[in-house]
Amino acid sequence: MRPNSCIDYILSSDKRKRAEALEYLYENCFPKVAAYIQSNSGTEEEAKDFFQDTIAVVYKNLLEGKFRGESAITSYTYAVARNLWLQQIRKRKIVTTSLENDQLTDGHNDEINANLIREVLARMDVDCRSFLTGFYYNGSSMEELARRFGLSSTQVARTKKLRCMKKLGEIIQGYGLKKDHFII
């Protein structure tokens, strides 16, 4: 089944087509959703429950025209599942995220990821946070950073970056996460 026909099938009044589309979503999305939930403090049973909630939200959003078609329906379904799980995690007051480089183009999802990055960076000392923000977000060169932070050379700036990344890794691990959850 093509992703575009999946959307048509979901919106169809034909129950067989809807069932076929839902089966397609289950086969193509559930394994990734389950892996994400289980790697972020969840169980297989919770993954099954959240996937059902996800399908309900996706269906509702399709009916209401909220799906803009900027990504594949499978990517959109994964994004919805991930956002629902992040909301659940926040309710439990467990900080977690997965900023993996998936095929999502949903602006809401980017906003959630940016907020989680800011939350982790807020735990760092100001100097390291400014240094990493300058390098990764502002695109400052090592030469620029060395001048701005009063460092004697670009090699000293590289060393500072490595030390700050080590501190960031310790903060991430302190939350019970793995470094590979974050792509900076």
Can you offer a commentary on this structure?
Helix content is 70%, strand content 0%. The protein has 184 residues and is mainly α. It folds into two domains: 1-96, RNA polymerase sigma factor, region 2, helix turn helix motif (Rna Polymerase Sigma Factor, Chain: A, Orthogonal Bundle); 123-184, Arc Repressor Mutant, subunit A, CATH 1.10.10. The chain is elongated, with a radius of gyration of 20 Å.
How would you summarize this macromolecular structure in one to three sentences?
With about 180 residues, the protein is mostly helical. It has helices spanning about 5-10, 15-40, 45-65, 75-90, 105-120, 125-135, 140-150, 155-175.
Helix content: over 70%
* Count of distinct structural domains: 2
Shape: elongated
| Biggest beta-sheet profile | none
Strand content: under 5%
CATH superfamily of the largest domain: RNA polymerase sigma factor, region 2, helix turn helix motif
Assigned CATH architecture of the largest domain = Orthogonal Bundle
Question: What is the SS-derived class?
Answer: mainly alpha
Low-pLDDT runs of 5+ residues are 94-112
Distance between the termini: 35 Å
Question: What integer value in Å does the Rg equal?
Answer: 20 Å
CATH third-level topology of the largest domain: Rna Polymerase Sigma Factor, Chain: A
User: Could you name the CATH class of the largest domain?
Assistant: Mainly Alpha
Summed up, the helix count is 8
* Mean pLDDT level: 78
